């Protein structure tokens, strides 16, 4: 049952990510208008006659409007890096796991309802809420990922679960984009109007797909351990990170290395959407419809890619698959600016959308499954909290680099290409992992401490029969 709950929650989160893209495009437009910049427009957003797109060197909140999304992403990343250990400690050392998951889901629905009132007079409030919403989203992810390693004790089944949930999330996003675009095109709306439509649809969608799993399916969990003497919930998270890192380095070194690789890979992948939306708006001068079309291509390709690369992972091992996915991301992102350097190259953007879609379908299920297969039993909430922490500790850096380059009037091509450096560093770290067979055996020996969810074993109804087992070297690996 909790496997289904995980998939339904992923559907709500997937729609939220897509709606954030529509909202991001609209915020870029409203921010430019607020400081008197000429902007491209479409549909009902256009004055008559429509202005030409011009360079914009005016400042909003001290930054160029084109830096807005990157700055917001940087702030969320810093907040997450500072506070995620505390959230993880609360989830791990109290019986509040379910309550935090349910309350954070409700908070996301309410915030997105308020954001549906986006206009030229409310954009600053919406922008502030777009800092709060991703942060709450990450809190929600800490809770949801704590359930992931408890869904099954079978490594092949876990790979299938992560791949199928990933595919379900991407299918949700594809359907969501199509529905929003149907409404937007039929109503002739521009970026702001499309964002409003998206937010209204999101409220209903997320309310349903959050309510069902959290009210009916996800189970409550007791505290996995008590707060040690001399510690508090505010301090124990950071203390445990220090102790856990030391423990991982000595007893489960593959977990430690994996976390370091994830820190850089998640920084690059999580920041990609923010950077890409800004790049499409500023360099390719894409409209909201064109930008969402590129994202749609990414998602459509990501769905079958999840299946294809899940099978590849079983054949070559998760470690090799993870490293290949990092190499793919680095190469594609480095090459892209060479072929996407102006409005006349919009078509090339769609081609690279295919390549990036393959990367999304590949990297996420591979690294999640890898991490879950490596971590010892009895520390799931804490270690999944550390996983989220690792994924967020550097996520502010790509937007920060992008912002610094943009504020210095350096070509955005360099800003986009800089994101590839994080995948290259992650690749180097992942390559340095040790004996994966030993790492798997150590983790497997602790599974008796793991509290499994209802219907965990066999949750896929024998779907794994006949599937080739992970090679031992690959069984040890694991984003808003």
Description:
This protein has 480 residues and is mostly helical. Helix content is 72%, strand content 0%. The chain contains 16 helices and no strands. The protein has helices at 2-34, 68-93, 97-115, 123-147, 155-187, 191-217, 233-250, 253-282, 288-316, 318-339, 346-374, 380-393, 397-407, 412-418, 420-431, 436-444. α8 (253-282) packs antiparallel against α11 (346-374) and α8 (253-282) runs parallel beside α13 (397-407). The protein is globular and about 60 Å long.
Features:
single chain; 480 residues; mainly alpha; 16 helices; disordered C terminus
Describe what is shown at a glance:
With 480 residues, the chain is an all-alpha fold. It contains 16 helices and no strands.
What sequence of helices (H) and strands (E) makes up the elements?
HHHHHHHHHHHHHHHH
Count up the helices.
16
Overall pLDDT metric: 81
Beta strand %: under 5%
Structural class comes to mainly alpha
Distance between the termini: 25 Å
Helical amount among residues, as a percent range?
A: over 70%
Q: Rough shape?
A: globular
Uncertain stretches: 47-54, 454-480
Number of strands: 0
Radius of gyration: 22 Å
Give the arrangement of secondary structure elements:
Layout: H1 2-34, H2 68-93, H3 97-115, H4 123-147, H5 155-187, H6 191-217, H7 233-250, H8 253-282, H9 288-316, H10 318-339, H11 346-374, H12 380-393, H13 397-407, H14 412-418, H15 420-431, H16 436-444
Helix pairs in contact: 1-4, 1-5, 1-6, 1-8, 1-9, 2-4, 2-7, 2-12, 2-13, 3-4, 3-6, 4-12, 5-6, 5-9, 5-11, 7-8, 8-11, 8-12, 8-13, 8-14, 8-15, 9-10, 9-11, 10-11, 10-14, 10-15, 13-14
